[in-house]
Write a structure and sequence with these properties.
It contains five helices and seven strands. By secondary structure, the protein is an alpha/beta fold. It has one domain: 3-Layer(aba) Sandwich (Rossmann fold). α3 packs across α5. About 30% of the residues are buried.
Length: about 170
């Protein structure tokens, strides 16, 4: 399926064959995954799930990593983060494949750069036609202190980005 983009002629059409979805396993990422699956199924596209392991903030602790929600980074070693992420990523891949969406995953360790950069680079390297990213809806001081991966992706990607807003249940 091919869709013409605004301001182009039909011979300069846009098609989606490959979608990159960065995930931190949060509820906003899950919502973005739902949208990515809809788009992938409508266009017959494949899905590339991507997770960035940030540099740990503190040395490894004795406490176990939580099994649900975003992967915590404080007090956890890179090895512990990877051990927590790999099964979750495998589970996501399997659930996407059950819906007949060809899916692969990639986990990278990020040191010293903004978290959006490896997302954009992976999408370019994988020849993605679309990046689907969830937004947490942070604003003000939280956004300033925590940054916004979604905003960085939208500002710096040469590839079209679908930003999926997340509104928590009331």
């Amino acid at each position: 399926m091919t869709v013409s983009t605004p301001g182009t002629t039909p011979d300069q059409s846009f098609s989606v064959r490959r979608i990159t979805l960065p995930t931190d396993f949060s509820e906003p990422s899950q919502r973005a995954l739902e949208w990515a699956l809809v788009v992938a199924r409508q266009f017959g596209a494949s899905l590339h799930l991507f997770h960035v392991l940030p540099e740990p903030v503190a040395p490894a602790a004795a406490s176990p990593v939580m099994p649900t929600g975003p992967i915590p980074t404080a007090m956890v070693s890179t090895k512990q983060l990877l051990e927590a992420v790999e099964p979750r990523m495998s589970e996501l891949v399997a659930s996407c494949r059950k819906l007949a969406v060809p899916t692969e995953s990639q986990i990278v360790h990020q040191v010293g750069e903004p978290l959006y950069r490896p997302v954009v680079n992976a999408a370019i390297e994988n020849h993605s036609d679309l990046i689907v990213v969830g937004t947490h809806g942070r604003s003000g001081l939280k956004r300033f202190l925590l940054g916004s991966v979604a905003e960085g992706v939208m500002r710096h990607s040469p590839i079209p980005v679908l930003a999926v807003p997340w509104a928590p249940s009331a």
